[in-house]
Amino acid sequence: MPIAPELIQEMQTYYHHRAAEYDASMDYDQPEVVAQLACVIERIRQLVAGKKVLEIACGPCFWTQHIYDCTHSVLATDYNQSTLDQAAFKQLPTDQVQLQQANAYHLSDIPTDFDAALAIDWLAHVPKSKMPSFLEGLHQHLHEQG
Ligand SMILES: C[S@@+](CC[C@H](N)C(=O)[O-])C[C@H]1O[C@@H](n2cnc3c(N)ncnc32)[C@H](O)[C@@H]1O
To answer: What is this structure's pTM?
Structure first.
C-alpha cells in the first residue's frame, strides 16, 4: 500500500527541526564513536576514490567530511536547507564539496555526469512503493561504469 504523503512530510519536518543537533544526537561528535566507524569510513573511501559523487540526503555532511578528500568531488544534496546550513559550518572546501537543496525523488535540477552515489542512512526512509522510481531517477544521474 502506498505510504501517506503526510508521513513523508512529517519525516522531512522532523529532520528539519533536528538539523542543528543531528550530529551530536548520533554521537558523531564523540571521537570514540568516529573511531568505531573508521572501518566503514575506510571502505566507503575505497569505493568513491577518484569519483564524482552524488550524495543523497547528506544531512549535516558527517560522512561527506570523512570521504570527500579522496573523491574527484561531491555534490551533497538534502531536502532540508537547514541540514545544508549545518553542513556549511563544516567549511568543507568548495572546490571539492558543493551543497545543493534537492528532493531525492525529483532530481531533475541535478547534473547527470556522476560516477558514484552515496546515500547513508537514507534507504530506510524510502517507502517500498517509491523505491523503484527513486532508484530509476538516481541512475539517470550516473554514468555507466566499464
Ligand atoms: C537519517 S538522516 C541521514 C543524514 C546523513 N546521510 C547521515 O547519515 O548523517 C536522513 C536525511 O534525509 C533527508 N531527507 C528527507 N527526505 C528527503 C528527500 N525527499 N530528499 C532528500 N533528502 C531527504 C533529511 O533531511 C535528513 O537529512
So the answer is: 0.96
CA of 143 to the centre of ligand 1 (A): 23
Cβ of 121 below 6 Å from ligand 1: yes
Please report whether residue 20 resides in a domain. yes
Query: Which residue range is the domain that position 80 belongs to?
Result: 5-139
What is the number of other CB atoms lying within 10 angstroms of the CB of residue 146?
3
pLDDT-derived band at 1 (thresholds 50, 70, 90) equals low
Over residues 85-123, the pLDDT tens digits come to 999 999 999 999 999 999 999 999 999 999 999 999 999
Atom of ligand 1 minimally distant from the CA of 122: 10
Q: Is the pLDDT of residue 146 over 60?
A: no
User: Is 12 close to ligand 1, i.e. is its CB under 6 Å away?
Assistant: yes
Ligand 1: does its nearest atom lie under 6 Å from the Cβ of 97?
no
Report the CATH number that the domain containing residue 73 is assigned in CATH. 3.40.50.150
Q: Is the CB of 44 under 6 A from ligand 1?
A: no
Q: Residues 136, 141, 145, CA angle at the centre, nearest 5°? A: 95
H-helix segments, 19-129: 22-25, 31-36, 38-48, 62-67, 81-88
**Domain total in the chain:** 1
